[in-house]
Amino acid sequence: MAKKRILVLSDSHCGHKVGFTPPRYDYETEYNKKLFEHRRMIWDWVHDEAKKRGPYHAMIFNGDAIDGRGEKSGGTELLTTDRLVQCNMAVEAIRSFKVKKIYMSYGTNYHVGSLQDFEDIIAKEVGAEKIGGEDNLEVNGCVINYRHHIGRSSIPHGRHTQAAKERLWNVMWAMRGEYPLANIIIRSHVHYHTYCGGPGWVSIITPALQNYGSKYGGRIMSGSVDIGFVVLEIKGKDDFSWDVPILRMPYQEPLSL
């Protein structure tokens, strides 16, 4: 059976000042010079690293493609407040990887719309095979269960617990005979990467495409942020591997007295 390679991306937050931004929509000002440099760095790095590991049979884009209206910060952190423009940015970003088969999941209501699912627009434009809240994709007999949302942990060792919890719930649903037992579980949302697993299964929390630097993250949250993506290589049900390239941003020099 021929090995198949799946590219897993999530949390691009297109439209945010530290979001994943196609060059055509990007701009530099004196105020955002460093942010502009970082956006270009992330865009180039992600594409270079993804190209090294391709080509891909399919892509899973696992939610929060756009950042939304940014109500909590009054829109002050956005490159554009127009969610249709944000959708166009996300469409261009997804298409830039040149993967023909695309599967998507819905992100959080705050970012992608509570009354209208703006990611439906993106899914239609990129010709996605499916967009849903939670789905299962079978590849060479291996089942991938993917959904955007997962609980966040504020302690380092608790991050693995969230990933393990998703595996246990999957097992319990499978025991009821209502859903397939997954070999690979994919979750996103929290912008950090971790995983746990055992024989024949792994539960992965994906890194994000958005850089750190939001007001919420910089002033409220504790913890680390991971920028990157996931590549799955699947030969059979119990014969798979994964690679998670992570970008390390430039060292933050301390203030000097």
The rough form would be described as globular
Radius of gyration (Å):
18 Å
Which spans of ≥5 residues are poorly predicted at pLDDT below 50?
none
The multimeric state of the shown protein is single chain
Which CATH-level-2 architecture? 4-Layer Sandwich
Largest sheet: 6 strands, mixed
Strand order of the largest sheet: 4-3-2-1-11-12
What's the mean pLDDT score?
93
Strand content: 15-25%
Number of domains: 1
Kindly state the percentage of residues in helix. Answer: 25-40%
> The CATH topology is what?
Purple Acid Phosphatase, chain A, domain 2
Distance between the termini: 63 Å
The CATH class assignment is Alpha Beta
Give the strand tally: 13
Question: Helix- and strand-based class?
Answer: alpha/beta
Counted by DSSP, the helix tally is 6
